[in-house]
């Protein structure tokens, strides 16, 4: 396969990005290589069906059920698959637990690897140059930009997703949630708390 | 020397600007179309995930820096389609005959989407390469960070972690080696490890000496330390 073609073929498409996508979609559709109805189905899946609510169910269950939590931290993939959360970009899941001693935070410095079946499509900031460049070198300054300030005695461990392993942070269960149901607990779990750039909501 | 995508540790990008939770998954309609076209074209089976990552990384540094996220996706997709012979440059110019393509039988149909997304593409494989490192063992990453099979090729050892000393934190089993798979040289599975590095190994001025960075690294990226 050619490796560094100085004349990138993409330059033959319209430069304006929306038109570039439309042009490519039209060419592929006319040749029968893609089905516009399949595109709609893909978009509907990631816009409406798969998102951080999935990861929140896993976190809430781990908070409520110590045996599930222990098994989840040992080998997450089969457990989350049993809950229906498996598939593209979630084939190899590892769950990492926040404690008073250690805060975990996930990044992909090389591209945008992210656990799709549990969190959906990554937000724009996760894919931004600023997050990719800085999360590994100055995680505490980055966390401060999310309004998270950790005590110096809490060590930060940043997970750079360089392979096909996908990481989900298990945040600490907030105080004052004793006796809550899994549904009530799941409502406290934010997307960012499962990336490690946020903390769960505190019950009102 | 690696490529423009390898930006971990870089200075000068300014603040992270988090958008609120609950913001639309796709900020623009064309972002959604770009993602869907890319996934649907991938289902034609003419390339693997490592080739598609490398196609984005091979955008010229100028394009990579000024293209938005999905602009990179769709531009790299156009490049891949031509490189693999699925489309011609004439097709992209708009001078093509319509009519059924030889690969049209492989086109992803709407009713097959859920199964295709749910199936995923696991990267673990049986391997005859025994694991060389034990849990907790001290290792050092190779330096420079580079593909040793293809000069300028795809690799997943970020430059910021080249030549750094860490220890084995997890053993993930054997996984497809991107350095080989991105170039059609076979999956070449080998043991993959999570390796933890103290920040003092990576940065001149670490924020906090107790902090750590973990990377998933293949056995051939590592030496005993």
UniProtKB/TrEMBL annotation, chain A:
The lineage of its organism: Bacteria, Pseudomonadati, Pseudomonadota, Alphaproteobacteria, Rhodobacterales. GO terms for molecular function: nitrile hydratase activity; transition metal ion binding. The keyword Hydrolase does not apply. Keywords: Iron, Lyase, Metal-binding. Fe(3+) binds at residues 108, 111-113. It catalyses: an aliphatic primary amide = an aliphatic nitrile + H2O. Residues 17-197 form the Nitrile hydratase alpha/Thiocyanate hydrolase gamma domain. This is nitrile hydratase. Its EC number is 4.2.1.84. It comes from Ruegeria marisrubri.
From TrEMBL, chain B:
Keywords: Lyase. It holds the Pfam family NHase_beta_N. Residues 1-106 form the Nitrile hydratase beta subunit-like N-terminal domain. It catalyses: an aliphatic primary amide = an aliphatic nitrile + H2O. Residues 122-224 form the Nitrile hydratase beta subunit domain. It is an enzyme of class 4 (lyase). One of its GO terms (molecular function) is nitrile hydratase activity. Its EC number is 4.2.1.84. NHase catalyzes the hydration of various nitrile compounds to the corresponding amides. Belongs to the nitrile hydratase subunit beta family. This is Nitrile hydratase subunit beta.
């Amino acid at each position: 396969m050619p490796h560094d073609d100085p004349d990138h073929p993409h330059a033959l498409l319209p430069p304006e990005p929306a038109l570039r996508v439309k042009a490519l979609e039209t060419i592929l559709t006319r040749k029968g290589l893609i089905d516009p109805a399949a595109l709609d189905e893909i978009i509907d899946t990631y816009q409406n069906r798969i998102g951080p609510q999935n990861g929140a169910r896993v976190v809430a269950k781990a908070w409520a059920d110590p045996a599930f939590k222990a098994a989840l931290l040992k080998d997450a993939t089969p457990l989350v698959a049993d809950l229906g959360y498996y598939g593209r970009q979630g084939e190899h899941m590892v769950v990492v637990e926040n404690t008073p001693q250690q805060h975990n935070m996930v990044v992909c410095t090389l591209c945008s690897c992210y656990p799709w079946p549990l969190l959906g499509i990554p937000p724009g900031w996760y894919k931004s140059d600023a997050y990719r460049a800085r999360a590994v070198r100055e995680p505490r300054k980055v966390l401060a930009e999310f309004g998270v300030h950790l005590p110096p005695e809490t060590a930060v461990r940043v997970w750079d997703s360089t392979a096909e392993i996908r990481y989900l942070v298990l945040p600490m269960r907030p105080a004052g949630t004793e006796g809550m149901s899994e549904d009530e607990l799941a409502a406290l779990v934010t997307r960012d708390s499962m990336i490690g750039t946020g903390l769960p909501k505190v019950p009102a | 020397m690696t490529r423009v995508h390898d930006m971990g540790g870089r200075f000068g990008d300014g603040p992270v600007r988090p958008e609120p939770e609950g913001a639309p998954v796709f900020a623009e309609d064309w972002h959604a179309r770009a993602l869907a076209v890319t996934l649907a074209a991938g289902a034609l089976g003419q390339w693997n995930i490592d080739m598609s990552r490398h196609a984005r990384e091979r955008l010229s540094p100028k394009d990579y820096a000024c293209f938005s996220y999905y602009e990179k996706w769709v531009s790299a997709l156009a490049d891949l389609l031509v490189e693999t012979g699925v489309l011609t440059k004439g097709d992209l110019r708009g001078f093509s005959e319509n009519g059924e393509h030889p690969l049209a039988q492989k086109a992803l149909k709407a009713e097959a989407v859920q199964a295709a997304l749910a199936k995923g593409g696991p990267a673990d494989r049986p391997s005859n390469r025994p694991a060389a490192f034990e849990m907790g063992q001290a290792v050092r990453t190779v330096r420079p960070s580079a593909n040793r099979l293809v000069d300028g090729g795809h690799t997943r050892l970020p430059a910021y972690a080249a030549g750094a000393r860490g220890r084995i934190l997890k053993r993930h089993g054997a996984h497809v080696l991107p350095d080989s798979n991105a170039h059609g040289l076979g999956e070449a599975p080998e043991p993959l490890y999570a390796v933890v590095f103290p920040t003092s190994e990576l940065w001149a001025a670490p924020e906090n000496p107790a902090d750590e960075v973990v990377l998933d690294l293949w056995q051939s990226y590592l030496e005993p330390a």
